[in-house]
Amino acid sequence: PFIDFFTYEKLIHPVTNRPEPKASFIPSLSEKRKISKLVAAIKMGRLKPRPPKPKDGPFVFNYDLWEKPIADRNKRIDRYIPAPKLKPPGHEESYNPPPEYLFTDEEEKKWSEQEPEERKINFIPQSYSCLRRVPAYSKFVNERYERLLDLYLCPRAHKLRANVNPEDLIPKLPRPRDLQPFPSIQSLIYSGHKDVVRCLSVEPNGQFIASGSDDCTVRIWEVLTTRTMNVMKFSSGVTDIKWCPDRSKCLCAVAVGKDLFIINPKVGEKFVITETDLLFKSNVDSNENTKSESTDHSIVDWKTIEESETSDEWKNGIRIVIKHRFDIKQVVWHYGGDYFASVMPSGANKSVVIHHLSKRKSQAIM
């Protein structure tokens, strides 16, 4: 009879108790010869071990990316450019957007008439009371398809970075000894005055300079050549001189003591010089009419010089003389060239007087 001695229960005694033979303890000579041949083949390089297979599948790369130098790496991996990310959704894409994002009838009609490329958004915002009432988006597949086309057909390329030395971008700084608030090199000398020069004024075009001195003269210089173009003499020292800022007139205001002279230096373009003289010839009036036009006789007196062959003042370029009651220290022109002011520190409440050249009028600033 068959005795089923194999059971799932753990038995105390073994099935067989035959002792192992003594040959199992002695190394086999044939196995020793096989092992020695394998060792010799490995040493000679004829036998190489098989590479281990990846455990996670054939598509997993279990290697160190930085093990090889850069030149030996896969160029396709280095040229990889990630796809641009989509724009995050805005308020108009909400299932319950604010009222200002919803289209009116006119906006919806305008949106439907536009081309798809001209629309700011490719859908009409709608409002729902709750999220479970929002239907499925009908254009989902189309948008995904267009997104894949954009990723597939849109060319992407690396921008080569320019190797620029940062020091080349910094401008060359001047030497510290050259950064001075005053000129250190003498280039031009305007010599001619015999006493202290009290005032200086530059022509609006920058071609000439007018200077006044205590030697009772006003000199007109050419800037580039330092040549004296004109010399005008007065009865006393010149306290201030200002060139008219209007380039269509050739005029200078000269303060000499209590008198203010409007002179024509007669330098520059001949057309401007003649037009300036025509302004005074057309406005020449009698002394009585001129005095009657003055605002206040106690402030100033206007005197217009008439053109004549015997008049030395007209030959010297003097066109108008304005006599004040106090010494003039400063003259200032308005940028329009028709108004100018004279400052008299000793004039108390009438120390500043505004003059109107075209109307021959004056007014004190109280």
TrEMBL record:
Task: Offer a single GO CC term for the protein.
Answer: preribosome, large subunit precursor
Q: Which UniProt keywords apply?
A: Nucleus, Repeat, Ribosome biogenesis, rRNA processing, WD repeat
Localization per record = Nucleus, Nucleolus
Protein name according to UniProt? BOP1 N-terminal domain-containing protein
Listed GO biological process terms: maturation of LSU-rRNA from tricistronic rRNA transcript (SSU-rRNA, 5.8S rRNA, LSU-rRNA)
- Where would I find the BOP1 N-terminal domain in this sequence? 1-183
Superkingdom of origin organism = Eukaryota
Q: Spans of the WD repeats?
A: 190-231
Q: Which GO terms describe its molecular function?
A: ribonucleoprotein complex binding
> Main localisation, per the record?
nucleus
Q: Which InterPro entries match?
A: BOP1/Erb1 (IPR028598), BOP1_N_dom (IPR012953), WD40/YVTN_repeat-like_dom_sf (IPR015943), WD40_repeat_CS (IPR019775), WD40_repeat_dom_sf (IPR036322), WD40_rpt (IPR001680)
